[in-house]
Amino acid sequence: MTPAVIQLAAEAAERQSAEVTSFGARIAWVIGLVVFVVFVYWLMRQGWKWRGALQNDLPELPAAPDGLPAHRLALTGRYHGSTTAGQWLDRIVAHGLGLRSRVELTLTDAGLDVVRPAANDFYVPAAQLRGARLDKGIAGKVLTEGGLLIVTWAHGDKLIDSGFRSDRAAEHAAWVEAINLMNQSITTEGAER
Length: 193
What we know:
Elements: H1 3-16, H2 23-54, E1 71-84, E2 91-92, E3 101-108, E4 111-115, E5 122-125, E6 129-135, E7 137-138, E8 141-142, E9 148-155, E10 158-166, H3 172-192
């Protein structure tokens, strides 16, 4: 073999044995990806805080009074959030209304008691209940048709839709009927006065 052939063979071998893994470049990509994910999370958190600041005109949520009458209905399930009534994507986050959690609902003649172990409890007096319906979605949660119990209620000068899903979905129809009948009797009494 001539020196020229040996040199060509060495150059060819050098081109073929290029470095396969560059750990420095991989580490830089991983760090960049982590920084990007943290930045996106921070932006989401800022958006949540901003939405809460825009809704700070919403009054504090009422607490359940002592000595509630016997319950008409009770259920356990999930609270999926609250939105401006009729606008299923306009989530309300003020006062913890945007936090999903387990829920225990109790309907009495005095109103609706919402007990959430992972978030703030609240109470809706009967006079502020505006109705109930079955629907398929509320901000961030979409189910089959009729999979969510939506309760509409007044708080301050705002109408709010709150979404619940019972552990036993067959209970939803009874809740819709009871709340709507309750609302009818309250509006009828108010009209007679």
